[in-house]
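Milestone 3.1: sequence recovery, worked example.
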């Protein structure tokens, strides 16, 4: 890009500052976003057995830290660093079946590790808050049953009349967390090793 005569006469540092301001004016112009998580948010665990499927949901019963997303220039590239987390008690998951509730708690070692935490680490970029739906990928850390694992997943970021929705899900296996899926009736009913963890977070701007 050719600099104008005026810019060429300016000291290098001042010229660099002006260029940064110029390019940062494109797009949304935002480099940091912060939201609080509304209690109407939910976290779900979906699984299946050789007989049927099941879903267990926790809604509004978790602790959370505000989600902050900041655009930073790292050595590798420009990326959106995230902070914030959602923590839910394993016993708060409702599978609509008492036996299944007990099996899930036992499998996830709820007595020894009563909490599951989803910690947000990074996004490929800042979400487009002016778009009706924006799809992007990011990295999270999940703490479950005494194990910490990092995963990449896809998000859907939706604008709503009162805020935003951040939806994400990913397929896991019990083996990812060194767990053994439960069996019933002498092994005749077998829970499959793979399961999904999904969340729908209702985000409200911290200034709202």
């Amino acid at each position: 890009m050719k600099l104008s005569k005026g810019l060429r006469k300016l000291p290098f540092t001042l010229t660099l500052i002006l260029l940064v301001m110029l390019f940062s004016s494109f797009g949304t112009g935002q480099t940091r976003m912060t939201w609080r998580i509304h209690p109407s948010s939910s976290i779900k665990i979906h699984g299946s057995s050789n007989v049927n499927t099941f879903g267990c949901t926790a809604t509004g019963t978790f602790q959370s830290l505000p989600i902050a997303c900041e655009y930073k220039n790292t050595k590798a590239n420009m990326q959106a660093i995230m902070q914030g987390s959602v923590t839910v008690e394993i016993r708060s998951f409702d599978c609509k079946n008492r036996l299944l509730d007990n099996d899930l708690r036992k499998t996830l070692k709820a007595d020894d590790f009563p909490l599951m935490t989803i910690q947000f680490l990074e996004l490929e970029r800042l979400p487009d808050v002016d778009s009706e739906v924006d799809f992007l990928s990011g990295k999270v850390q999940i703490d479950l049953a005494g194990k910490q694992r990092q995963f990449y997943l896809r998000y859907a970021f939706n604008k709503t009349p009162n805020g935003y929705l951040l939806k994400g899900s990913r397929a896991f296996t019990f083996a990812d967390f060194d767990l053994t899926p439960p069996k019933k009736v002498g092994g005749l009913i077998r829970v499959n090793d793979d399961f999904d963890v999904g969340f729908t977070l209702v985000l409200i701007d911290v200034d709202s």
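The chain has three helices and twelve strands. The first strand starts at residue 32 and ends at 37.
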